[in-house]
Every structure is written in structure tokens, then in C-alpha cells.
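TEACHING EXERCISE
Course module: macromolecular assemblies
Task: Read the component lines below, then compare them to the predicted structure of the full complex.
Student: A.B.
Group: 4
Components provided:
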Amino acid sequence: MSDFFTEAILIATFASGVRLAVPLLLASLGETFGQRSGVLNLGVDGIMLLGAFGGYYTVLKTGNVWYGLIAGIGIGVLFGLLSALISVTLLAEQGISGIGVYLFGLGMSDLLFLKLVGTPTPISKFPKLDIPGLSDIPWLGGMFFQHSVIVYLAFALVPLSTFVINRTTFGMRIRSVGENPEAADSLGVSVAGVRWATVTIGGTLAGVAGATLAIDLGIFQQNLTNAQGFIAIALVYFGAWRPIGVMLGSLLYGFVNALVLQLKTLEVIPPDLSNFAAMAPAIITILALVIVARRFRQPTALTKPFTRGT
Amino acid sequence: MRSKKWSWVALVFAVALIAAACGDDDSSTTTSPDAPATTAASGGTETTAAAAEALRIAVVSPSSETDLAFTQSIVDAVNVIAAERGIPEENIDVTENMFNIDDAAAALRDYASQGFDLVIAHGSQYGGSLEEIAPDFPDVSFAWGTAADTKGLDNVFAYEAASDEGGYVLGVMAAALTESNIIGVVGPIEVGDAKLYVDGFVAGAEANNSGATVRVVYTDSFSDVALASEAAQAHVAAGADAMSGTAQMVVGAVSVANDEGVLWFGTQANQSSLGDIVVASQVYKWEVILRDILDNIDNGVLGGEIYVVDLENGGEVIEFNDAYDLPADVRQLAEDTIAGIIDGSISTGG
Amino acid sequence: MAETPMLEMRGITKRFPGVLANDNVDFDVFAGEVHTLLGENGAGKSTLMKILYGMYQADEGEILLNGESVDIPSPTVAIEHNIGMIHQHFMLVDTLTVAENVALGLPSSRGFLTDLDVVSEHIVELGEQYGLEIDPAAEVWQLAVGQKQRVEIIKALYREARLLILDEPTAVLTPQEVDQLFDTLRQLTADGRGLIFISHKLHEVLALSNRITVLRQGRVTGNTTTEGATRHSLAEMMVGREVKLAPDKPEVETGGAALQIRDLEVIGDRGNVMVDGLDLDVHAGEILGIAGVSGNGQRELAETIGGLRQSNRGSITIAGVDTTNKPPIEMRHAGLAYVPEGRMKNGSIGAFTVSENLLLIDHADDQFLSRGLYDFGAIREHCQALVEEFAVKTPTLETPVKSLSGGNIQKLILARELSGTPQVLIASQPTRGVDIGAAEYIHKRLVEQREEGTAILVISEDLDEVFALSDRIAVIYEGQIMGVVDPADATREQLGLMMAGIRPESVAD
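Instructor-supplied answer key:
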């Protein structure tokens, strides 16, 4: 136990939690936009996988991680638009159509990997950036300010998303459409337009999340996300549909995972309890969900397709 | 070809439906004569003529055939055997990524009813399905691994790897090369082949260097690459300068080893392509036992045997990475250890 | 009145599959007047207004605004033409603030950033001008119903509406709030706006309107100025025949208290106290009406008596049997009949047939069973008799209930509930959304049941109904009875004050 409380280990644990949180944060921020406007996109994990492969493959071929990120964005936009077409314009049952996108992403990313790459081959990763000044702070510097560039970008999206949702006319429209689309429609707000935009934002961030995951790991493997997209969706509920809540949820999930792993590594948790410890992140998240669900209401129109005059 | 496959699927479904409809009492009398009869009609007679020159082999496996680990090892072996025996490519079929056991069962039954001569169920988790499927196809030979028993079925071969042996050798090498005297291991779930390998690795490391600390962490997932990566980071943070790991999610850990300049010891397939920090890999040559299995099938024996690949029978080899500059004394130590295990003077039991 | 009407709708026809919703309807509004559109549910009022507001497109006909023909393809265009609509079900986003609701859909003076401070200022100005005071920063879900309506009106005024459509705006208001609303509306017409008022509350129509147009089955069946119109003449235009607005009520000797409620406390869906230490007696042979603004515990009270909801404290006795927190079946055995507020939600099963719905309670009764199996002959006979007795209009007994009209479903539920001669009848909103003909029939049956000696509790938000039916009126406010009055002595104004939470003692100065 005493091993655990060394500075190096504690810093490493927190840093690990931050890294684990980042893909979840990106994906769940995107999903927050969709859900605030009333659209549940269960295809997040599929789009993440496609973004992950696209990002990985681009870096593999070009050696430039930024091109990889752009590939993730492009794939995300494309599949965000596709998801919007399915759920907003074609009014598909949201609980089912997203699973279709997921299965497509799972299968297609694996097939493309098999045909285009073959064996997992390491690629370059995002460059590390120590934030000048902040990274020198004892303890905190090592935990939060010695990460790869993409980590800071992901966290910068949190205040930006909060601002967009709460302080812009677009954000006001998102909230109104998710809460009472009939009312928004009666005031001339294009319900479909707003939802196309939010679902596309969600797809884009899912694509970025996938690309980030692959480029930060420097490797691709079939089903690389390991269902992180679904955890991201749960985190949106956990975060009570607020970017800051989503961030706290992602960090909590990441930290608990990192902590359990570190405690197992140092054998603070005996190996025979390892299975139980592995469930901790899920259990803690579910408990938090239960508590939060009692306090916050979900967007009233969530999962409800909108057509005028119904 | 495709339409034939689907008509077979339909037939299997029909039989299954009849069996279900007849209930438990009748199923033994209705299904059993039916299913083998249909198999014999086509699976048996139709393909026997072709099989005289070339067998048909199918593989059902939980991960990707390019996973640089478990699945790739069996697919590589089947390809080696196919080349040796001149089996044409179209006689080999692989269904990968069957991490869902029900899907895997459907694939196994599909292959058996298509008249494949050998259906390889490459995953210990497929045992339950095989127990149900194999009796329905007495003319088809099944191979199941990694597993140490044939479930009492005379058309099932079992195979496993003495992965503790290779693990022991790699552990000895890691202990010889570490400078920090801290070695990290990333495992998936503490069962089967993975546990055997990890235990062997730890035993080897501790036997060769009593001052070394070997830390093992099981991520409790075969597929979580990100968690494997973080596990490796945790080892590095705790001072490890040599690491090993097993299962397909381990590429995440190798990637960290690459970044941090930490030595890596691979298993299940040659992982040298992952970087020049890879010192050596334990590689399974399942072809060693596949040869025996196919000989048995040729002689009309469709199962009942249990095979183990190990250092002695050459089914397990240590492949050194040419890109890593391995000191000659450590290389010698490895060779001596291999020889010791083969002649029995070294026990991997730790 | 100006010479050119601000709105003229000419020959509007709108067809839906199988229905002619509007048939060659003419309608106009002059600046400065209130023109009421009167008609029963399904008469085509809403369709006509949705066409005007751009939510539907007319198949035939033309709309002229200030003499010029216009095309209104969407609400946005209607708003551009200075048409505003106050919807019956408020078109408000509960989680947004008042200012956000008002600003929604409008361009901001700061581009993509919101300008809620500017909007708020203007809201306060409008509020002062028209007596619509409201806190722009309040979130809508916190507002009382009357305040929400103010927000709706402000929304329209903020968009500079000159022509305002008010769809049943008084449905959820207390009489005092109605008076306040009417003051505001009169001020709006005084400023030269035109108002279209949709209502079926005849006395309100007479109080507010300048002109009245009556629709029946999609057609204009009457056109009158308010002078010379009476409630009876309007009701006859709506229904097409003579109508009794209040049933004849013979004197009935009342008996003992068949329904006794003591110190009842019930928690609502959101965890707050909805019925708060309520005491009530209903005697055999009387109709006790409960009046109140919706959401003051009426629904919870009815559900608790009916066994659909558990009480926290207190007791309920039906015909001498303590049924507190007993399952519904025991209440039935004690002699309770229950016509719930939600016809389709709790009162019937839409996908079931007429017969099946009639048998929902008695399905295990011996008279319908023969050696343990259903005796379909007996069932048929029983159901046929009920359908005929209660004048339920249905093609067959096997028709699914969801394809019947609201009035017929309500009659069907009444037929089922009254088939067992109950000791106590709870009728929650018995005629809400029901056509006048059906309402008239339902009222008649309730009065007849009273003569049979049943104790009847009628819960209604329609004060006219409460006055017409009740022998005594109890007013509920925040889960408590504010007082019980005799309808012969009470006035609407007295009831209105009690509905707003003011006890009669403090009123009588």
C-alpha cells in the first residue's frame, strides 16, 4: 500500500485517468449536442471505430498525425450526416437505427484494416506538450499539464460547448427542440435543421474521438474502442446533458479505471479480487447514474422523432 | 457456392426447428438420425471424392486473423499445412471475430454441415457449443483448443500449448536484461493459455534473478487495447524496464513499450514487426499437431486425442528479433534454458 | 370598424382522408374587434386556424390580409404577416426562461450570441403596457398556468402580432384570471388589433365577442353579433337542435354518507403533497361537485378513491367499508363505480373491442361463464343491451374502442360503470372534450343515477357543469377543501376566489 502513495505513482495514475477519459469526453460531448436536441444516436461506437481506422490509416500512410485527425473529422462528418438522415429525416426508431450504424462501423473498420493494413503496425502519436509554467507545478503539473496536444483540445471543448449551448441562439434552439419541438416549430425554428446540425456535430466528435484513440495508442486493432461509444452515451446521462457533467463523468470513469489498474499492478488489490475490481468503473457509473437520474430530467423530446401536425 | 451454403443453412434451421418442436423426449430419435443422414448424403459422399486429394479445413476463431496473437497463430499454421499438402486455397475457410459464442456455434455447425473434414474451434470458450454440435456430425472431425480434454467425444481432438515453457524462457531473458529489476506483465483474464504463459514467465524471471520484482496485472479484458496501454504505462511508472503480455489487446502495451524504450517479450505470434524493442517472441507452430491430426483423419481416426505443443516437439519456438541487439550471453542463457526444459532438468512449475 | 377587414378567409376547404374538415368556410376579422369561432370538438375550428397560421395548407380557398391575397406556407410566414397564435396547449419550452421563450426563433441583435437582456427589457415594457407583468428571467416550468399564458401573449406581441388567434385560452384559468385576461384582450383590441377567440364556454363568448361565427361539421352554420345572442341560441346553432344546458333535477331524499373521506393525504407524481388532509362526505342520492383549477389535487383524489394511487395518511370509507389503500377490486366490491379522467389512459383499452371494454370489470362474473368458459351468447346480449341503453354509437360490438368518438367512449365507460348499480360513483371530468349532445346525455344519466340513491362525486374544471349538476359544491385548492357551498346561493365570483385559495370566511367582510 505504501508503494501507492509515492508521488510518481499518484501522478501516473491521475495522468492515466485523464488519458482514458479523453476519447470518452470527445464522444460524449458530441452526443450531448444530439441528445439536447432530442436525438439519441446509438451509433457512436461505430463512428468512433471508423474514425479510429481512418485516422490510423492516414497516419500510417502519411506519417502526419494532423492529417489523421482531419481524416477522423471527415469520417465523423460523413457518418454524422448519415445518422441524421436516418433518424431525423427518415424518422427511424432511434433505439434501433443507431445499432445498425454501430454494426456497420464495427464490421467495416475491421474489414478495411484487414484488407488495407493486415497486421497491427505502430504509427506515430500526437506530440506531447508540456504547458509552459503549469507543467512545472508540483503534482498537478504531472497529472494534468504534461499530455499530448489533443488532450488539451478535448478539454477546451468543454467550456466552448457550454457556451454554445447556453449563450448562443443556436444553443437556445437546440434546447428548445429537445424539450418541446412543437413549440420551437410554432416559432419558426427548423426542428429538422437543428437536429441535422447537432447529430452531425455528434458524429464529427465521435470520429475525432476514434481518431484520437487510435493515434494516442499508436496502433489499431479490431474493435479498438471496445464499446467506449456506449459508455460515452451512458456518460451523457450521467453528466445530466451538461458538458461540465459529461466531463466529470468521463474523468471519474477514467480515474476509477486507472486507479483499479494501478492498484492491481501494485498488488494492493489481490489478483483473485481482480475480476470484482474490474467491475468497479461500471458499478460506480451506474450508481452515479441512479443518483443523477433522480435529480435531473432528460430532454423531454429525447428519442421522439418530430413531424409537424401530430 | 453461395446459394448452396444458404440452402444448407436453411436445412439446418429446419432440422433445428423440427427438433425443437418435437421436444426433449423425441429429439434423440428425430434429430440424430436426421442430421447425420443429411450430412452423410452430401457432406459424406459428395465431398469424399474430392477429399481423397484435398481435405477441407475450417477455422472458427474469436479475434482477427491478423491479431499478431491467438488467431493469427492458428491461421498461419493452417496455411503452412495447406502448402505442405497442396490443399487448394478454396478448401480453407476462416471465420474470425467470433467473440460471441452463439455466433461461433452457428459457424461451427454451418461448416460441419457443409462437409468440411476438419473444423477447428480455436477458443476454449467454444467447448460447450462443440459438445452439442459434434455428436450431430459423426463423420466430421473437430479440433478444439486450447483445451485439455475431448469431452469424451470420439470425433473431437483437443490441443493446447505448454505456453509456460516459452514463458519461462522469456522470463529468464527478461530477468537477465532488466536493469531496474522491475518487470511488468499485462495479461487479459486469469485463465487458460494466458495464465499458463504468465505463470511460466514469472517463474522464469524469479528463478534467474531473485532480486527482480515481477508485477502482473490482468486487465480483465481480451479486447480493451486502451486499458492494456494504460496497464503498460502503470508498469513503466512503477519503474519497469522490461515487459511482456499476452492476448490480442496487448498491442496497446507494445506501443507503450515502443514509446518508452522498454523491452518487450511477445507470445502467441512473432511480434517483431511491432518494433525493435521486441527482444523475442514465443511462437506456436500448431502445424506440428495439425500434421498428426490430418494423418489420423486419413487413417479414419476422427478424434479422441489430446495434443500439446511444446519446446520439445517443436510446436513452440522462441523467435529472436534480428532488429534487437541481444547480448551473446543472454542468447546463450536462453538456448540453455530451452535445452534444460526439453531434457527435463528445468521445471517451469516455479 | 375599418372598411377593409384585416383578415378575410374565403371559401376555405380542407380535406383529410375520409373527412371534410372545412367545407367552403368564409371568415373575416376587422381591426379592433373580437370575432369568436364557436363549435364543438371536430367542428373544424382548429383546422381553420391552423390553415391561417400556416400549419396546414387549404385545398381550396383564399386568404386575404388587409385586402391582399397571401400565401401562408409555414408559421414563420404567418409571424411575418403579424399573425400570432396562442395555442390551447401552451407552446412553451419549460426548461427555458421567459426571455428565451420569447426570443426563440428570432434573430438576435448580437448575431449568433443571444441578446436576452435586450429582450427582457422589451418584455417588461410590454408587460407594463398590457397588464402582463412577468419576470423575464424565470424559467417557465416555475410559472403558474395564468403566468404561462401571459408569456404566450407576450410572445405574440413581441413579434408585433396585429391579428391574434386565441385557442380556448380560458380552459385552465380561474374566473378571476379570466377577467384579467379579458381586460388585457380588450386593451389589445382598443389598440386596433383583431382577435379570433375560440371557445365553447358560452358565457365567456357572450362576454367578450363582438361577432360570433358557428361551425358545425366543417361548415358555417351560424353568424351573429353578440347582441341578440343567448347561450341557448348559440348552443342550438352548435348542435343543430334544441339543447338542455342544465338537466332537470327532481328533489331527492338524501341518505347517509356513502363516501367518507377523512384526513386524506396523497403524494403526487413529483413527490409533493397533492391531497393535504382532506375531509369530505358524499351522501346517498346527492351529487357533490368538486370545483377547482386543474392541478390542485383533483386527479390524485379521484385516483386514490378509485384505488389507482396509495394514500399516505387518512381513510376512505365506501358504503361503510374501509377501503383505504385496498386494491381496486375490493373498492368495486364495496360498491364503487369510477369514471376516470383519462378516457383512453385509464378508462378503456383502445385496442379492445366494445364488448371487451364493457366486460373489463365483470369478466369473471358467473353470469358470463358456463362451466368455466365464456358464454358468448350471454355476453353478447348483455353488451347489446348496454350499448342500446346508453346510446353508444358503434358500428358493431367488435369495433375497437379507439375508433369511436370521445363522447361515445365516455358513454361506453359510463354504461360499464353504471351496469352494477353502484353505491358510490366518482366521475372525473365526465364531459371534457365531449360534444354537447353527448354531454347532455351524460348529465341526464348522472342525475338519474342520483335518483337511484347513488352518492355521486363529480370532479370538473368546467364551472358551468359543476353548477348545473351539483347539489353541493366543494372547492379544492392545493389539496384542501376551501369550503362547501350551495349552488343556489353561490356566485361564480365567490367560487373563483375560493379556487384561488381564499377561504369564504376571509371573503365575507
